[in-house]
Amino acid sequence: MKTCLIVDDSKVIRMVAKKILDELGFATEEAADGQLALDACKAKMPEAVLLDWNMPVMNGIEFLRALRELPSGGDPIVIFCTTENDLDHIQEAMTSGANEYIMKPFDSDIIQAKFQQVGLI
Amino acid sequence: MSPEDFNFISTLIKARSGLALTPDKAYLLESRLMPVARKHSHNGLEDLIAALKARKEESLIIEVVEAMTTNESFFFRDTKPFDLLRDEVLPPILEKRAAKKHLKIWCAAASSGQEPYSIAIVLKELGAQLAGWNLDIVGTDISHEILTKAANGQYSQFEVQRGMPIQLLLKYFDKKDETWEIKPEIRSMVKYKYYNLLDKLSPLGGFDIVFCRNVLIYFDPKTKGEVLEQIASLMPEDGRLFLGGAETVLGVTDKFEPVKGQRGVYART
């Protein structure tokens, strides 16, 4: 079973994403900010990360850059999932090492389509 | 939207079409029904729903139900057929036409344009290999309204996220306010035409590759066979037909046979 780390400061969003990912056959972990996510990755690298942008303590883009510096930090497939929907943010995410990008709001069809595109399912 | 309004409209749509609108699909009401509201000069969904409640006008109800039940189309739907097109189907066909440099592709159910534009992007991504080629992509459908949308090439955030990889979105779309518009270089590759598959198909001309995915499922076996026979007559011997994943030619027509190792791809017999 592949693992996906859900990183979002909203408990509701984490819950919705977890439900969808459960149905897609993922084992999920959750983190409420970038620092907690980074700690989780250092303990055990997940196959996938679903990543919010705006979070307290450490935001999504800071987390992503720090993750890619870690040993094996290049391995996880990182999919942003954020309300930021302008070209500048998307470009910045992609050049910082994101693999895909979801603009909120999302539903199960979008998550499934995006996870398929990056070869996770 | 108030829970009462959501309840009213979802009950109405369920009763008329069988479509069950769960709360996670509530955004669909917004994206599908706002155009209907605007068309009837209502300020928003609340006004539209109030009008539905007050007047129970049959034509408005039908319009609302149709807007909600139009099939959702995905870019690069099912992914695999487009990989097959690029990696297996196109190379021999292009090789054979290297002198004429002319390729003709038909999307028999263009809907709102996602499939023809996906094909156009596959061709565009081949880059220099197709430089100087004359590429005809024709998209047909039986709804004028959906063809107008297809030709406009404008999609909501939800629509572009259904299947369009982010890198290709950045490359081939412009963002205008909250709308994603396909770039002219891709849009101009596709010509849209109103056409009914039950009519005589020969006026459409010949095609090297035909996409007819998830359309024939709506026809009875006899009609299916007739349409496929007509399609076969439009194609050269090395032409290829794409059908939907759940479709088959077995027992329907002997004009096509499945291509080994290429799921959903059919060759003329």
Tags for this entry?
heterodimer, A: 121 residues, Rossmann fold, five-stranded parallel beta sheet, 5 strands, 43% helix, B: 269 residues, alpha/beta, Chemotaxis Receptor Methyltransferase Cher, domain 1, 2 domains, seven-stranded mixed beta sheet, three-stranded antiparallel beta sheet, 11 helices, 10 strands, globular
Average of per-residue pLDDT values of chain A? 96
End-to-end Cα distance of chain B, whole Å, is: 56 Å
Strand order of the largest sheet of chain B: 6-2-1-7-8-10-9
Q: The CATH topology of chain A, please? A: Rossmann fold
Largest sheet geometry of chain B? 7 strands, mixed
- Which chain pair has the greatest contact? A-B, 21 and 18 residues
Helix content of chain B: 40-55%
Level-2 CATH architecture of chain A: 3-Layer(aba) Sandwich
Question: What is the tally of helical segments of chain A?
Answer: 5
Question: Would you mind describing this structure in some detail?
Answer:
The complex is a heterodimer of chains A (121) and B (269). Chain A is α/β, with parallel strands linked by helices and 121 residues long. Chain A has one domain: Rossmann fold (3-Layer(aba) Sandwich), CATH 3.40.50. Chain A is 43% helix and 20% strand. Chain A has helices spanning 11-23, 34-43, 60-69, 87-95, 108-117; strands at 3-7, 27-31, 48-51, 77-82, 100-103. A 5-stranded parallel sheet of chain A has the order 2-1-3-4-5, with helices on both faces. In chain A, strand 4 (77-82), helix 4 and strand 5 form a beta-alpha-beta unit. In chain A, helix 2 (34-43) runs parallel beside helix 3. The model of chain A has no long low-confidence stretch (mean pLDDT 96). Chain B has 269 residues and is an alpha/beta fold. Chain B has 2 domains: 3-69, Chemotaxis Receptor Methyltransferase Cher, domain 1, CATH 1.10.155; 80-268, Vaccinia Virus protein VP39 (Rossmann fold). Helix content of chain B is 44%, strand content 16%. Chain B has helices at 3-17, 26-39, 45-55, 58-69, 80-96, 114-125, 144-152, 157-161, 166-172, 184-187, 221-233; strands at residues 102-107, 134-141, 154-155, 173-176, 179-182, 190-194, 209-211, 240-242, 256-258, 265-268. In chain B, the strands form 2 sheets. A 7-stranded mixed sheet of chain B has the order 6-2-1-7-8-10-9. Chain B starts with a helix and ends with a strand. At the A-B interface, helix 4, strand 5 and helix 5 of A face helix 8 and helix 9 of B.
